[in-house]
Structures are given as C-alpha cells and as structure tokens.
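Appendix B, record 7
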Amino acid sequence: MNRRAWYYYLGFYRGEYHKLFITIIFSITQSLMILPIAFLVRYAFDKVIPGGSVHNLLIVGIVILVLIILNSILTLCTRYLSINQTKLVIRDIREELLIQCYRCARSFYSTADLAKIHASIVQDTKRLDCMSNAIISLFLPSLIVAVGLCGVLMYISGSLFLVIVFTIPPLYLMNRVLIRKRRVNWVNASHRSFEKFSKGVLFVLQMMDLTRIQTAEQFEINQQKEYLEEVRVTGQANAMLFAAYGSVQNGIIAVSSILILIIGGMAVGSGRMTMGALISFYVAVSLLSGYVKTMLSAVPQIIEGNESLSTLYNIQHIDEPTPYSGHQSLEFKGEVILENVDFSYGDKDVLHSVNLTIKSASRVAVIGPNGAGKSTIIHLIIGFYLPQKGLLYADGVPYEIIDIIHLRQSIGVVMQDPIIFPGTIRENIVYGYPDAGIEDIIKASELATAHEFIQTLPGGYDTFMGEKGILLSGGQRQRIAIARALLRRPKLLILDEPTNHLDQTIVDKLMHNLKSLDEKPSILIVTQNMNVAAQADRIYILYGNGRIIDSANHEEILDFGEHKDVLIKDQIEKHYV
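Structure tokens (predicted):
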C-alpha cells in the first residue's frame, strides 16, 4: 500500500468528516434495527408459538417486518450520503488532475506518453470511484453491522459462535493470497493492457488518413488484435480469480452453516439449547453472512482502486513545473525584449546571444531558414520555455515576476499549423472568449479575411469543421485561427508563417487589414516570405546557427552582404534585386 497516495486521497475528505460521521451513525442505527430480529425470532419459537397465540405471533411478525423496512430505508439513506460524498471527492480529484495538466511545462508534454496519461486519468479515476463507493457504501456499513451481529451471536450461544470464529483464518488467508497475487501479477497487467488498447483505439482514429495512405490497414488491425487479446487474457485471469474467490468464500460460509446446524442440533437434542435459540442464531448467521459477503465482494474493487490510486498519485506529483511562477499583473502595452538569450532543447543548441526588440505598436519580422529557431523565439515570448541564459522583458518588466497567464491574455498567436478542434467555426473563433458577441466575431473574421467564405457555407458560423478542421481548406483554417487571435484584441499579435496556405491577394488584404487596426497592436511576423517581411518596420535575420546577425528595414537589408546565409540571400535577391 502506498501510504503517501492514501494520505493524498484522504486529504480530499477534509472538511467532510461530519458527513462521514453521519454515515457511520446511520450504519450503527441500521445495525441496531437488525439486531432485535434474532431475539424476536427466538421469542416467537420459544414463547409465542408454543403458547398458541396467533395475535402475539402476528405482532412479532409485524415488528420484524417494520424493522426490515426501516433497515432498508436507512440503508438507502446511508448509500445516498456515501455515494454523494464519494462522487464529490472523485470530482475534486479529477479537477486537481486537470489543474495538474496545466501545471506541467510544455517540455513535459513534448516527451510524455499523452495517450497513456489520458487513459490513466479517465480509467483510474473510474476505478478509484468504484473503490471509494465500495469502502464507504459497502465495506464500512457492513463491517459495523457485522460487528453488532457478532455481539448478538456471542450472547445467544458462545459455543456456536466459536464455529464462526474458526472461519475467519481461512477467509483472511484467502484475501491475503488474492491481494498479493492480483496486485503483483494481474491488476497491473490488466491496467497496462487496457492502456495499450485505449492508446491503440486513439491512434486508429487520429491516424486514419496515414493508415490508408500507407495501405497499413491490415497491419494496424493485426496490431490492435494483439492488444485486444492481451486485454482478453488479463481480463479472463481477473474474472477467474474473482470466480474462484467467490466460490471458496461461499464454500467456507456454507461449511460453517452446516457445522452450526449439526452442533446446534446436537445441543437442542441434549437440552443445552432451545429450538428458538438455534433458529434465532441461524437467522443472525444468515444476516451476518450477507454482510460478510458484501464486505468481501468489495475487496477486489478496493484492490483495483488501490493500484489506480498509486497511478493517479504519481501523475499528480509529476515535478515538471511551468517555467514562470510570477504573480505581477501587467497592463501590457505590447513591448517585448529578448536580451542575450541562449536556448537549447537538451543537448541541441538552438539560439545564441539573441537580442530582439518589439516596440509597442511596431511591426517586426524575423526571417531565416528552417530550423534556425524562429518558432522557438515565439515559444519563449509566450512563456512556454525558460532560456538557459539571458532575460525576457514585457514593457520593461522581467518575465520572472510577471503573471505569465495574465500576460498571454494580451497576446494573440497564430502558429504555422493552426490548432483547430472538432466543433463549429463559431466555437473555434470564440474559444477562450465564449461570451463574445456576434458583432465582434464578424469583425474579427472580416479582418482575417474569413467572413466572406464563412457566409458561403451552408451553416455559416455554425458549420461543423470536422476533426482538426478537415472539412475546410488549409487557407480557411488559417484565417479562422487569425480571427480567433484578433477577437481578443491583442496588444501583441504573433503570426508564425501566416501565409503558408494563402495566395498573395489574400496576404496583401490581410496585411492591409492588420495595419488598419484601431488598437494598433505590436505585430511579430515569423516568415520566409519576403513580400510579407517587407511590410515590417524592422526585419531581423536569424542565422542557421541560431544567431541574429543584425536588423534593418527592408531597404537596408541588402547591405548585409557576406553575413547572409544562402537561403536568405536567395530570398532577398529574388524579391529585391
């Protein structure tokens, strides 16, 4: 048992202990209503039936029936309280896990097995939910009632109760074997095989086009069949273990019942025990066996949940914090400075002594070959990464003390491959700003040159875009992403290769619209298109070795001569010579 994981789990019940206490009180009351049934049965057989009083027998029967009904009502109330509490706790745990996802740095997600994490969060919280319900709704109430019934049995006949006591060691040993074997061998294997299956299904759905292009359908089917077989084998092993566990459990209880019948019958025959006492003892044993079976049936769910709890605890305690943890809110005006910045991905150096200034309301372009680090500059500006050397400033304030999430609210970003999720055009544009009015949506779309083509679609802004926007062209997706960025009226607009999917006419119109914005945001354009870069106030040339050699306006750029690498030289000569 992972004690730290259990401390973590129990911590979610803080402030809710009074509800647990109420649940326990209900369970105790429930047991108090069950206990008299055995004594009433004894009274009926020893006194009422021999006396021949139908009236008294009817009263005893009615009292027993009322106790059973009240017990059922209390059982339902106990279940309601416990289920309500466990569902709230599981909700809070899931919420914490989602928050944890946002606590982790982007570098973590670039190497993590996201499909595995997804399967763990979804499936393991479900198993933890089942465990929580099993403990609070089934195990604890049954344990309380069972303890009360044991007291009744001891009172009725201490010698017969010893027969029940002798069943405890084999039941305990059986549970120990179950816990050890399942935890070490089968629970883990079952969880891991299901994770593989879940990942496989996700891969099939996400990579459908690749699979068909590569004519790999049969290969993929065979791969998934292996995962399905593994799920079947581990699932069958678990099911057979449960079946054996239940059979042995029922066998032990049946043997004890037979021994009670034989020994009790002998006691009645010898006059050491009345028939009413034997029947009442037998009734109490029947009630006890029901609660014991409920307790034991909860054990497998508790074992499953314990393993899942350890997995979730490990996810919750992933130590990959986001780069910046400042708390100063900044009324950002659009100025960003990179000062002597070095950055590397592990052993791969990307940027060296980069100095770059984006002044408020200015337009800056960064040009350079593929792999030179242009996108990395964007990631640094929006705070995805922390440079190994150098500093970043927003309006002269160091990034280290800024609330980076608050800063991002004033930055609009359109990446080279725009992120589009399954949903309507409207939902994609207003993402993060769900209360935006239709006037603002249309204005942002017009600025992004998207409104005209959206109007021609059958559903207009309510047109469904498909997975990753597959139902639209690349240029249409690009313009919707630009509209999404413009909707928030950013103080800094970052465009990463914004013209990849757009023809020159659309590009010219888009750049004209951006220049006419009333808010006059700063604009950073990362591009290899010199026609676009030429519209910037300042152009930075980023070398393939990760260094910015100089900056200039587009007329001055030709003066760099020998400093230009081949790609930049070709582009400049193509567009300006």
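Remarks on this record: Residues 3-316 form a domain with the ABC transporter transmembrane region fold fold (CATH 1.20.1560.10). The chain has three domains: 3-316, 323-410+492-577, 418-489.
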